Amino acid sequence: MVVGNEYCFYSFYSEGPKGLIEKAAIYTKMQEGLYNLAFGDWNADIQSLDDSIRTNNGDRDKVLATVAFTALDFTNQYPNTLLSFEGSTPARTRLYQMGIGNNLSEINKNFEIRGLRLQKWEPFMQGINYDAFLAQRK
Fold this sequence. Notes:
This protein is α+β, with helices and mostly antiparallel strands. The chain has one domain. The protein is built from three helices and nine strands; from the N terminus they run βββββαβααβββ. The protein has helices at residues 60-77, 90-102, 104-107, and strands spanning 2-4, 9-16, 19-31, 34-43, 48-50, 82-85, 111-117, 120-123, 133-137. A hairpin with a 2-residue loop joins strand 2 and strand 3 (19-31).
């Protein structure tokens, strides 16, 4: 994994049947104390993130775990920040929700997770569909 730009850029690889595919997680300051987390395929030629590509490289859980690791590292550097994230499509948001739900006990060791539902933030609960998520380091 490569970390750069004041811990706001992380580069790593997906490895599977489609070969090595460079991925990135990028933390962008939205306002004081609030950062957006975006991740997806990294296009090194144009230095740009594409979060709309479906890679299907067979290592989704490993990729999501790596993104979670970047969130731990980022919040080690910036402990009093909120991380905001959502999928580029409703299906992706649902995928993230399933990933959170499947790993909630582990996630809750380090983060408080909230979900956006009906335009209100509430503590994350399994079985409820959310539009976006906030994570804050405990």
